[in-house]
Design brief:
Shape of chain B: globular
CATH topology of chain B: Sufe protein. Chain: A
Oligomer: heterodimer
Distance between the termini of chain A: 33 Å
Helix content of chain B: 40-55%
Largest interface: A-B, 26 and 30 residues
Strand order of the largest sheet of chain A: 2-8-7-6-5-3-4
Strand order of the largest sheet of chain B: 1-2-3
Largest sheet of chain B: 3 strands, antiparallel
CATH superfamily of the largest domain in chain A: Type I PLP-dependent aspartate aminotransferase-like (Major domain)
Order of helices and strands of chain B: HEEEHHHHH
Number of strands of chain B: 3
Number of helices of chain A: 15
Low-confidence stretches of chain B: none
Strand content of chain A: 5-15%
Chain lengths: 396, 124
């Protein structure tokens, strides 16, 4: 069966060049511990330094500001927890947005139960944070602002540079979860004005199980979560995962190399998919911002259909997508992102996300459109929410 | 995650539709939780002669709706009342644990349709 992968926001395949470099550190003499002084250790340390240089160069940082972690989630946890406790004497107020990833939201909620005050900023119908709301939320106790660069569910790109300027003016530590945006739109720590920034390797054709936290020099931040050895300049204990870090470094290099060209290509595919879906199917809305969205990100709500049933139907025809419906999340609540954007529950249950990647072509998009048509018709014909007068199908 | 039987009933659901002038209708669920099922029954001589459903929901919601109509068709009212959530799930070779609660409402919808039929009989 023809298989098409449209779920690159969930994860990406490892780039063959990344796999090749990683393989090199899984075999032969390249197994050393970078903390060891001997020959084997020096090989590993060299690889670690090289990867760090690649990452620093790609985001406009210096090597001393790069900490390798196990995931985007760990980076977010470390960033927020560390900034909160390091600044505890200055204040206890944290600002974040309603549409953050759970790695941020749940960390902030946990801090709330330990005496921190939290403001969760609302978003507009596109999932966008308003800079005026950020400014209005700041108090003399505010010590941390954490806002994602681009949203994973609806692709909306936040006004990070503006928030960064504001945070700098007020001397508030600013964390950005750039897990979804890196490799798709430019991520430069100075342009964005961030103190802390999180990345995850597997979102841009790197391996799983490796992430990065950028910590700007001079940021009042100490690691507060892991006790152990002096790795990563005493900021992340635990022997470094050298093969994964090497892969991360290579993936970062490849991601920025052709970003302009690839983004253009993806935007063309993305916009064609959006236009065709909205033209062909009634009662469908694009979710997220129409223009200020990730180049590879397509997301809709299909009224009168539940997301999981669309996902399953597409999967049976070889197309992999995702949905923010309750049924796919393992909870009873549909996506907190769509609810925050003002979609009612029954509409949020009908969400469908298609995130494109380097191997997707125009033919893939055509194939999806052809496959989707009978699926929508079939599921709507079955839906008690669909009145016959609404249908593009004959009444029974 | 789903059994082959669930996928079969999801993909080729039996008895989809509505019955005009039916003997009873049962509706359960709500749009908030993401599953709504509506079951229509046609009863003659205490036997469920025809049964149809409409469902908005996930794979499990659609498959259990389809299965319950298959199980109830041709049965007497008393036999149909013995169909439970568990027996529907068993007939589908099981459901994932989180689906047992949220999406396994079809037996309830059937019981409501029977109740609706019985209420209308009492009025006659």
């Amino acid at each position: 069966m023809r298989r098409i992968y449209f779920d690159h926001s969930a994860t990406t395949p490892v780039h063959p060049l990344v796999a090749r470099e990683m393989d090199h550190f899984l075999t032969g003499d390249n197994f050393g511990n970078p903390s060891s002084m001997h020959y084997f250790g020096r090989i590993a340390l060299n690889a670690l330094d090289e990867a760090r240089e690649k990452v620093a160069r790609a985001i406009g940082a210096s090597t001393g500001e790069i900490i390798f972690t196990s995931s985007g989630t760990e980076s977010d946890n470390m960033a927020i927890h560390g900034a909160a406790y390091t600044n505890r004497r200055r204040g206890n107020h944290i600002i974040t947005s309603a549409v953050e990833h759970h790695a941020v939201l749940h960390t902030v909620r946990a801090l709330e139960s330990h005496g921190f005050d939290v403001t969760i900023l609302p978003v507009d119908r596109y999932g966008m944070v308003d800079i005026n709301d950020v400014e209005a939320a700041i108090t003399d106790k505010t010590i941390l602002i954490s806002v994602m660069h681009a949203n994973n569910e609806v692709g909306t790109i936040m006004p990070i540079a503006e928030i960064g300027r504001l945070a700098q003016e007020r001397r508030i530590t600013f964390h950005v979860d750039a897990v979804q945006s890196f490799g798709k739109i430019p991520v430069n720590v100075d342009d964005l004005g961030v103190n802390l920034l999180s990345l995850a390797g597997h979102k841009f054709y790197g391996p799983k199980g490796v992430g990065m936290l950028y910590v700007r020099k001079g940021t009042p931040w100490k690691q507060t979560m892991l006790y152990g050895g002096a790795q990563e300049h005493m900021r992340r204990a635990g022997t470094e995962n050298i093969p994964a870090i090497v892969g991360f470094g290579k993936a970062v290099e490849l991601a920025v190399e052709k970003i302009d060209e690839e983004s253009k290509r993806l935007i063309t595919l993305r916009d064609r998919m959006i236009k065709e879906v909205l033209d062909r199917f009634p009662h469908v809305e694009l979710t997220g911002h129409p223009n200020l969205r990730l180049p590879n990100h397509v997301s809709f709500v299909f009224r009168y259909i539940e997301g999981e049933s669309m996902l399953l139907s597409l999967d049976m025809r070889g197309i992999a997508v995702s949905s923010g419906s309750a049924c796919t999340s393992g909870s009873l609540e549909p996506s907190h992102v769509l609810l925050s954007m003002g979609y009612p529950h029954e509409v949020a249950h009908g969400s469908l996300r298609l995130t494109l990647g380097k191997d997707n072509t125009e033919e893939d998009v055509e194939y999806f459109l052809d496959v989707m048509e009978p699926i929508v018709t079939r599921l709507r014909a079955m839906s008690p929410l669909m009145r016959n007068s609404d249908a593009n199908i004959p009444a029974e | 995650m789903y059994s082959e039987k669930v996928m079969d009933h999801f993909n080729n659901p039996r008895n989809v539709g509505e019955i005009q002038d039916c003997s009873g209708v049962g509706e359960v669920g709500n749009p908030v939780c993401g599953d709504i099922m509506k079951i229509f029954i046609q009863v003659e001589d205490n036997i469920i002669k025809d049964i149809k459903f409409k469902t908005f929901g996930c794979g499990a919601a659609i498959a259990t709706s389809s299965m319950v109509t298959e199980m109830a068709k041709g049965k007497t009212i008393e036999e149909a009342l013995k169909i439970t959530k568990q027996s529907v799930a068993d007939k589908l070779d099981g459901l994932p644990p989180q689906k047992m609660h949220c999406s396994n409402l079809a037996a309830d919808a059937l019981h409501k349709a029977i109740e609706d039929y019985q209420n209308s009989q009492e009025k006659k």
